[in-house]
Task: inverse folding
């Protein structure tokens, strides 16, 4: 899967474990890099959806159009992504299963603590 990043700081934290450890605690940094590695080796988002521990789910409200991947339920952190079509644009279809089966490009928007 192709992974794009919203900004350079985010890209550095997702690609450099030392940087991630400075920004987050050790467990979050390790989970983040594990998820990024899994995403890089996935063909489509359906591979991620089929891994229950990541709990891939679409978001609602002011985050509509974005999805979250848990970095560990007890940690409270999640990776916020936006699935993109083959033209690197936001999907116009609304069927989540179709989006998961067809998405092989994502935009990573942020790493966030869900409970803060």
Result:
């Amino acid at each position: 899967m192709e992974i794009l990043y919203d900004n350079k700081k985010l890209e550095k934290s997702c690609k450099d474990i030392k940087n991630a450890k400075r920004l987050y605690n050790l467990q979050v940094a390790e989970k983040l890099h594990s998820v990024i590695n899994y995403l890089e080796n996935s063909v489509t988002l359906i591979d991620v959806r089929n891994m229950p521990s990541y709990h891939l789910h679409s978001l609602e409200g002011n985050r509509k159009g974005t999805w979250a991947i848990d970095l560990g339920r007890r940690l409270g952190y999640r990776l916020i992504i936006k699935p993109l079509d083959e033209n690197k644009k936001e999907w116009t279809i609304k069927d989540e299963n179709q989006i998961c089966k067809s998405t092989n490009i994502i935009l990573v928007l942020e790493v966030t603590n869900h409970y803060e």
Q: What stands out?
A: The chain has one domain: 2-113. Helices lie at 8-15, 17-23, 26-41, 45-49, 96-102. The longest strand covers residues 105-113.
